[in-house]
Amino acid sequence: MRTMFTVHHNEHVSSRSFEEVVNAFESAVGSVEDTGFAVLVASMKSAEEFESQVKSRESTSGFMRFLTVDHGAWMTRVGLKAKARMYTIGNPLIARTMLEHDIAAGLNVPVRLMIYEEPATRTTRVTYDLPSSLMSGLQNEKVTAAAKKLDAKLIALGVHASGAQA
Questions:
Q1: Can you give the residue range of the structural domain that contains 103?
Q2: Once rounded to an integer, what is the mean pLDDT over residues 110-126?
Q3: What are phi and psi of 136, to 5 degrees?
Q4: For the chain, which end, N or C, has fewer CB atoms within 10 Å of the first or last residue's CB respectively?
Q5: Is the peptide bond before 110 cis (omega within 30 degrees of 0)?
Q6: What is the strand order of the sheet 30-31 is part of?
Q7: HEC string of the chain?
Q8: Does residue 112 have a pLDDT over 90?
Q9: How many domains does the chain have?
Q10: d(CA 128, CA 105)
Q11: Is the pLDDT reported for residue 40 higher than 90?
């Protein structure tokens, strides 16, 4: 089976430096990168403990980092100069609001977001695809409603980090 749908891509164009945007973003997003999410989950005994541990790792945005890929770091090894980081971010408590209606929503949560410096203009971009559009192919109103709440949180994080609207 093949399904086609439209994806809405947001891009916040910032006059802030790459480093300023990354710092604003990372300070607003908690992290489970240090311990690893699987290790964290395995150590928990109850739903209450899980929720408490998740909440202790989210930051002001309500998100946490699961993975950071520093494209700029590896690109220098192949002779290219770039400032670019891709993040996988999310929150299992938010993901639950979609996955409980359709487990297939798990393909698109946690979400990916990229921060990079545009070489030609020296502007910094914060880019991501809106989760509700990524999940529109599921054709599930409850998933869409929950994903739109996730959209709003992601947009707010993009504005916070970049200082610019999409």
A1: 12-162
A2: 97
A3: -60, -25
A4: N
A5: yes
A6: 9-14, 123-129, 111-118, 84-90, 64-70, 30-31
A7: CCCCCCCCEEEEEECCCHHHHHHHHHHHCEECCCCCHHHHHHCCCCHHHHHHHHHHHCCCCCCEEEEEEEHHHHHHHCCCCCCEEEEEEECHHHHHHHHCCCHHHHHCCCEEEEEEEECCCCEEEEEEECHHHHCHHHCCHHHHHHHHHHHHHHHHHHHHHHCCCC
A8: yes
A9: 1
A10: 17
A11: no
Q: Would residue 79 count as lying in a domain?
A: yes
pLDDT digits (tens, 9 = 90+) for 6-38: 999 999 999 999 999 999 999 999 999 988 888
Report residue 2's pLDDT band, with 50, 70 and 90 as the boundaries: very high
90 located within any domain: yes
> Is the pLDDT assigned to residue 118 strictly greater than 90?
yes
Q: Using CB atoms within 10 A of its CB, is residue 16 exposed (0-12), middle (13-18) or buried (19+)?
A: middle
Q: Which two tokens stand for residue 158?
A: 């993009």
Structure pTM?
Answer: 0.95
Q: Is residue 6 part of a domain?
A: no
In one letter, which amino acid is 115?
I
Q: What sign does the dihedral 18-21-25-28 (CA atoms) show? A: positive
List the CATH number of the domain containing 30: 3.30.310.70
